Amino acid sequence: MASPKISAVTEYLSVGGNRHPAAADWDSQTGILAFGADNNVALWDPADKYHNGVYAILTGHTDKVNAVKFYTPPSSASSGSHHFLLTGSVDRTIRVWRYHKQQANHSNSNSTSTSTSTSTTRPLFQHVETLQGHESSINCIAVARGSELFVSGAADGTVRMWRLDTGKGLSCNGHENDFLTVQGQLVQTITLKPKFFPLALALRTLCVEKKEPKENGKGNATCAPPMVLAVGGTRNTIQIFVMQGYEGGEFELKASLAGHEAWVTSLAFTDMNGEQSQTSSQSQLQSQSQDIFLASASQDKYIRLWRVHAGDDRVPVRRNANGEAEVILEANVEQTLSNKVHEFEASGSKYSVTFEALLFGHEDWIYTVAWSPDLAHSKLLSVSADNSLVIWEPDPVSGVWYSVSRMGEISVQKGSTTATGSTGGFWIGLWSPCGDTVVSLSRTGSWRMWRFEETSDLWVQDVAVTGHVRSVNGIAWEPTTGGYLLSTGSDQTTRLHARWRHGSNSDAQQQVSWHEFARPQIHGYDLNCIASLGPWRFVSGADEKLLRVFNETKAIANLLENLTGFTGGPKPADMSEAANIPVLGLSNKAAKDDDDDYDDDEQQDEDRDEQSTSPPQSQLHLQSSSALNLPHPPLEDHLSKYTLWPEHEKLYGHGYEISALATSHDGTLIATACKASSLDHAVIRLYDAASSSWREIRPPLTAHSLTITCLRFSADDMFLVSVGRDRQWAVSRRVEEGGEGEGQSGPVFKLLCANPKGHSRMILSASWAPMVEGAGAGKRIFATAGRDKTVKLWVQGQDQDQESFTCKATMTLSSPVTAVDFLPVVVGQGWFFLAVGLDTGRLSIHAFAVDGLGKIGEGWALPASECPSKSVTQLAWRPVGSGDGVMDDKRGYELAVASEDSSVRVLRIDGLSL
C-alpha cells in the first residue's frame, strides 16, 4: 500500500473557561488572551476579524489551571524576545511557557476550497520550565513591569517569590542558537501570619527620588527601586509587604490595611496622573504624579481604593473649624471607612498608605477589579456575581468615583446569588491592551466581549467564544449532511455547533468559522449521551432514569438557514416558535401559537400556575424571534435565554442512570442502556420513534451482566452491537415487525451472537464499518476497543456461518482505547479507515483493506497539538452524502472529537485517498 500523506487541521476548538478570578490574562504585546480551560491553557485572539475563536491549547498541567499571567523580563521588554506565559494549577506547579511564532493549523477557508486552507501565523508558547515548591493548589500569580521577579500564592498559606534566569543555548559547534534556556529560582517564601489562604496578589515597583547609591544596613548598595506587594485572601485585611531596592532583598510586612468586612478576592495596582487624581480640595498639592493606587475587591460587595504616596508629606485631608478631619459619611457605611495612615520606609524614601475611596453599586460578591491600560483616562473595571460588569471613573471636578457604564444581565437567574450557594455571575474581567474592549467570563464558562464605539458612545457586545466547562461525554452530527454538531456533557448542557458563513456573498471571498448556535438543553443532571433523530430532533440521556426527546424551534431553524446555509429539508408543520422553562418546572415547554391549542382541561389546570409567572405566549414568540434575528452567531445572552428546544417526549423504563444511547440511521429506532450491576438492569431497551406513542418495543434485549458502555446500529439498521464492562460484545439482528403486547409496533431485534471474552478487560467502544459493495457485498464488520489497549476487528462469517463473527485483526496500542469510529465510506480501491482515541487523549487513523482484513494496515498518529489532553470520550466522522459542506477524499473528511478535558474539536483529515 502506498503511504498517503495524512494531515490533520483543527477547524474548530470549543472549550469553556475555568471559573477562577485569576485564570485569564490579556497580553499587551501579542494581543492574545490566554485562559485556563480545565487542565489546559486556551489561546484566543479577540481581535481576529475572522472570529476563529480558540486557536490553540497548551497542555501539560495535570489538574485545573487557576492562575494565568503574561510576563516580560525588563531585559527584553523592548524586543519581546524573552516573552513568557506563567500558569499555576491545582497540581501545585507553575509552568513557564516561552513565546514563539508558528504556522497555526486553524483554517479560514471557505467550503468551495479544495485541499488547501488559509492559515495565519499566530503566537504560540512552548513549555520551557516547571517550578515546584508550593505544597497545595496555586491560586494567583502577580508580575511587575520592569522587574525580574514574580510572585505566586497558594492554598498552603504561603507567597513565594521567583526569578527566571534566561540565556541562549549552545549548539554542538559551540555557537549560540535560538533556543532559550530558562531556569527558575525560588528567591523567598513568605509564610502568611496569621495564617490565611492568599486569593489575590498585586506587585509593582515603587517610585523613588534619584539619589546616589548608599550602603544599607546589610552592607549592600541599593541598585533597583523598591517593590511593594499586596496580599489578600481569606481574611478581611490586606497585607502590604515591601522589599528594599538592594540585591538580595526580601519582602517584609509593613502594614495591614483594614476596612473590608469579608474575604478579599482581587487586587490591582496602577499609576495615576496627578491632575486626574486630585480633587478640588487637593489643588494645593504640588505633585502627586508618583502616587500609586491600589484597588481591592471583596465578598462584602465593596471596592476600596488605597493611595500609596511617596514623600515625607502626607496627602492632606479637609479639616473643619476645630482642625479635625472632616468626613461626610452615611450612617450605614461609616464603620467601613478608615483614615488611618500607614507609614513605611524603603531604599531611603518614605511612603504612606491611606484609604482613598469606597465604591459601592454591586449587589453580590465582587470577583475581579482591573485598571484600564489607557493611562490618560483613569478607569476601573469590576465584575461581580450579580451578573454585572461596571466601569468606574472619577469626576474631574469633585474627584468622586462613579459608575459610567454597566453591562451584563439583570435578574436573569432568579435566586441565583452567592447567598443561596450559587456560583453564578461574572468571574473574570479584563481590558484589551488598547483599553477599547472589555471581556468577562460568566458562570457558564463562556466569554462576553464589548467594544466601545465612539460614534454612538456605547459599549456594543461582539461575538466571543463559548464551550463546555466539564467533561464532554457525547457528540452527534445532524444525520443527513452533517449540517450541525451536537455535544453534551457533565456541565449539564447540550450545545449545537455549526459553521457561520460570513463576509462577502461571493463564494470565493466568503469566510467560514465555527460557533455555538444554540443551547437546546440546560439540565439539572450531568448528561452522558446524545443521538440525533433527524434534522429537527435529538434524544439525550443523563444521570437520571429517563431519556428526553427535543424538537427544534422555528427561530433556531431560521437562524441556521440564514447564517450557515443549512436547511434540512421541509420543516415540520408542528414546529413550535420557541421554548421556555417554567419558573417552578424542569422541562422545556413549547410556546404554542395560540392558547386555544390546549385541548386538555386538566393540562390547562396543571400549567396555570406556571403560566401565571411566565411571559405570555405571544410575547415569548416575539422575544425569541426578534432576539434571534441576528447577522452573527448568538451571543451568550441569546444562548442562555432564547435557544432552548422544547421537550417532546420522555422515555421511561430504566432503573438507573442512562449509560449508552444509539439511534437508527433512518431515525425510527432508539436503543438505550443504563448503569447496571446485575442481569436485570443490564438490558437494551428499544423505543419506536416512528410512532406517536413512543412506546417501548418489548421484550428488552438481554446479553450483558454489567453496564453497557456503547451501542451502535449498522449502516442498514439491520444489526445492533453492544459492548460493556463485562468484557463481552453482543450482536442483535432485526427479525420482524411488531413487539409483544397489545398495541405494540416497531421492529423486533433478537440476539444473534455474543462473545463473553471479546477482550481481557472492559470494552469501551464499538463501530460498524461501512457496507461493502461488489464481491464482498453483505459482509458485516465491526470494531471493538477496550481497556486492554487493543482494537479488534470482527468479521461476519459467510454462507452457513453467518450467525458468528470472527476476530480477523488485533491492534495493540500504547494506552487503553476509549473511542473508535469508522469513516462511513469505503475509500479508493477498497479501504476502511478507523479513527482511534486513547485514554491519554492521543488520536490516530488506521487503514484496513477490504480484501485483506486479516492484515493490519498502516496507522498514522495525529500531532499532539491536535489532540485533547485527557481521555477521548467519543469520535464521530461527519456524514458523507449530498448537500452543503460534504467532504470527500479530495477535500478531506471531518472528524469530531469529544474529550474529558471539556473540549469539542472538529478536525479536517486530509490525505486519505489511496
From TrEMBL:
<comment type="similarity">
    <text>Belongs to the WD repeat ELP2 family.</text>
</comment>
<dbReference type="GO" id="GO:0002098">
    <property type="term" value="P:tRNA wobble uridine modification"/>
</dbReference>
<feature type="region of interest" description="Disordered">
    <location>
        <begin position="587"/>
        <end position="630"/>
    </location>
</feature>
<comment type="pathway">
    <text>tRNA modification; 5-methoxycarbonylmethyl-2-thiouridine-tRNA biosynthesis.</text>
</comment>
<keyword id="KW-0963">Cytoplasm</keyword>
<feature type="region of interest" description="Disordered">
    <location>
        <begin position="101"/>
        <end position="121"/>
    </location>
</feature>
<dbReference type="InterPro" id="IPR037289">
    <property type="entry name" value="Elp2"/>
</dbReference>
<keyword id="KW-0677">Repeat</keyword>
<keyword id="KW-0853">WD repeat</keyword>
<feature type="compositionally biased region" description="Low complexity">
    <location>
        <begin position="612"/>
        <end position="630"/>
    </location>
</feature>
<dbReference type="InterPro" id="IPR001680">
    <property type="entry name" value="WD40_rpt"/>
</dbReference>
<feature type="repeat" description="WD">
    <location>
        <begin position="58"/>
        <end position="107"/>
    </location>
</feature>
<feature type="repeat" description="WD">
    <location>
        <begin position="131"/>
        <end position="172"/>
    </location>
</feature>
<feature type="compositionally biased region" description="Low complexity">
    <location>
        <begin position="107"/>
        <end position="121"/>
    </location>
</feature>
<protein>
    <recommendedName>
        <fullName>Elongator complex protein 2</fullName>
    </recommendedName>
</protein>
<dbReference type="GO" id="GO:0033588">
    <property type="term" value="C:elongator holoenzyme complex"/>
</dbReference>
<dbReference type="GO" id="GO:0005737">
    <property type="term" value="C:cytoplasm"/>
</dbReference>
<feature type="repeat" description="WD">
    <location>
        <begin position="359"/>
        <end position="393"/>
    </location>
</feature>
<dbReference type="InterPro" id="IPR015943">
    <property type="entry name" value="WD40/YVTN_repeat-like_dom_sf"/>
</dbReference>
<keyword id="KW-0819">tRNA processing</keyword>
<feature type="compositionally biased region" description="Acidic residues">
    <location>
        <begin position="593"/>
        <end position="609"/>
    </location>
</feature>
<dbReference type="GO" id="GO:0005634">
    <property type="term" value="C:nucleus"/>
</dbReference>
<dbReference type="InterPro" id="IPR020472">
    <property type="entry name" value="WD40_PAC1"/>
</dbReference>
<keyword id="KW-0539">Nucleus</keyword>
<dbReference type="Pfam" id="PF00400">
    <property type="entry name" value="WD40"/>
</dbReference>
<dbReference type="InterPro" id="IPR036322">
    <property type="entry name" value="WD40_repeat_dom_sf"/>
</dbReference>
